[in-house]
Amino acid sequence: MDTVVRFGPFGELPEPAMGEREAYLLPEPGRPLEKVKTPALKEDPGKQVRLALELTEDGRLVGKGEEVYSGFEAAQLAEGFEQLAAESRKQALQGAVARYFSGAELAR
DSSP of 20-84, one letter per residue? Predict the structure, then answer.
């Protein structure tokens, strides 16, 4: 378990530590060091994006989008958002939507 990232998932390592790298387990007193390899790099992305878009008859693009984060990406994002006030959090999300779609507004 990596305790550096708050909310870090159990049983996972951050991406930079994965990839079958050589590592040593810190042993219990009286036991020797044990040389191991870190798990292989996961194929599963830490972020999935789903969009459902529709072009209306008057030429407007209307849709819904969903970003789902998992693993360490989710933990790091949660840690960052936790440090922001509610209004700052809303502005950060609005900025992220505007980066994807110029002129878009966040609606609930």
Answer: S-EEEEPPPTTS--EEEEPPPPPSS-SEEEEEEEEE-TTS-EEEEEEEEE-HHHHHHHHHHHHTS
Rg (CA), the chain: 20
The whole domain housing 90 covers 15-100
In a domain? residue 7: no
pLDDT band for position 54 (50/70/90)? very high
Q: Total domain count for the chain? A: 1
Does residue 1 lie in a domain region? no
- Residue 51 and residue 92: Cα distance in Å, rounded? 20
Query: pTM for the complete prediction?
Result: 0.55
Q: Which residues contact 92 (CB under 8 A, 6 or more apart)?
A: 81, 84
